[in-house]
Task: structure prediction
Amino acid sequence: MNIINLETISKAYGPKVLFENISLGLASGDRIGLIGVNGSGKSTLLKIAAGLEQPDTGRVTLRKDCRIGYLAQDPPMDANQTVLEYVYAAAGEGATLLSQYTLASVQLEQDPNDAKTLAAVAELSERLTTLDAWDTELSARTVLSRLGITTLDAQLGTLSGGQRKRVAMARVLIEKPDLLILDEPTNHIDPTTVAWLEGYLANLQGALLLITHDRYFLDRVVTAIVELEDHQLFSYPGNYERFVVERIERERQRAKAELDHRNEVRRELAWLRQGAQARTTKQQARVDRANALINQERRQERGTLDLESTGRRIGKKLIEMHGLNKQIAGKTLLSNFEYQLTRDDRLGIIGPNGVGKSTLLNLIAGRLQPDSGELVVGETIHVAYYDQSSSDLNPNQRLIDYVSDGAELVQTGEGLRTASQMLERFLFPNNQHWDYIHSLSGGERRRLYLLRTLMRNPNVLLLDEPSNDLDVQTIAILEEYIEQFNGAVIIVSHDRAFLDNTVDHLLIFEGDGKVRHFPGDYSAYREVYEREQATLKAVTKPSTQERPREQKPRKLSFKEQRELSELEKTIANLEARQNELNAALNNAGSDYQAYTRLHTELEQVSQTLEQSYERWMELSELASAS
Result:
């Protein structure tokens, strides 16, 4: 039985049709990736599935008692709410009590003799035990920790965009919904966290519907791809790699059908041109058929995004950086930084958020000045900067005016092209040129900003998270453009596939002004990094004999004592459920759906049990030492 069914739904905004009479169903275990060009209606379709918007026609049916978790691209938040309050707000009474219990326990540790707080902790503990909600706390702590969320009492208004996205992610994961809907979940999230999220979602119970530009993520998470194209849905079983192969075959078949159609149109046109005397009233049906074919031909003319690099003259000296130092708000981002950009550089920049990656691009673009050191730009260098914020987009400006302000004419391989022609090459039809920018989707705005950036005809191109909010088709074409680009390219990105396809060496920003060079693409770097981490762990892991005996043991806090007591019950329950699932698997026989469901639950139970064991051992060691 499906968890959700979208049946023959349609949606349009004024004259712009997003989709017509499309249907989609998701059952437990389905993990579907939705792709399509920006502005095609992907996010709208997710909102309809989440119940946040209504279709113009058709209907949406949900399984009884279905719980939906929805992560928007830019989740709305109360700036005055704390992380803990926000994360637990939608997870039911147990989560609310856990939030209160956590805060009360912190207060009790600060003042163990406060009778009022002690009584509150005891009462909350009893209620949590009655609701059997301690497992929720363990799960919540695991998710929060894995997403790098440690400041639970911080107000949401003080967090960066990337931090807020991770907090919102934690909230929907902790809810454990029957249907999880994610809109660009990997935006602003570092590769290590993305890798953990891949594993978490691959073992998810229930159904998953997501939009992402991250092709590696699609490859490792989804069981099917659904493409929204020409107002219709096309389904492809399997991951993204299989989708690419099958889509090529579908395009080949469509090209053949279009060629047959064009030949038929030519024959009918030739017949029509014979003149009225060659036709009788009895042949009116053929006249109507010919006109219908011609109209169909016009409707089937489909736009394709066209990027082309012509480049401009570039001298021997590009950009040189010597001894650059930069601090912002007392935080060192660059310390004695050295780099000399060469003509064919394809340089990727990676590292955690807030360590200076975008700052370096702003220095090169002249938006910031170094505190000390020298940055020299060659006389022939023309820099174009595609930043994260699309900084010069004016929502109250018309598309044609915005592009014309950048360049009235642009040189392409086919000669000079006007602003209007370039808009059409970037999939903005003529009837949209006089629309205001605020009417565009987020992805369409990024595509428009990309057009204006490239129309400046640079020979040094700076790209800051270029794949965020772009569809996978546009990203693939941008990769081809970069490969052919006559000049140097510097890319800051979390998109692993994009880096692998565009750069040949990396700068790794490690924090505190430290920058390391790596001669290779992202995948090569990860292989080396993981080997280094494994070696480091083996060398630094202390043995039992090496553990210093004279170290003063730390006592368990009141909260930890309660956690240790509840963990013993949790472990017993998980072990019992593990045994039940193993027995059920042995009896599943040829029922594949039942086997898949049981196996998925067993993996989750085993994972939670392993985490519980580790935490129990940690607390037990502390308890025995105190």
In short: The first strand starts at residue 2 and ends at 13. The CA atoms of residues 375 and 519 lie 23 Å apart. The longest helix spans residues 592-625.
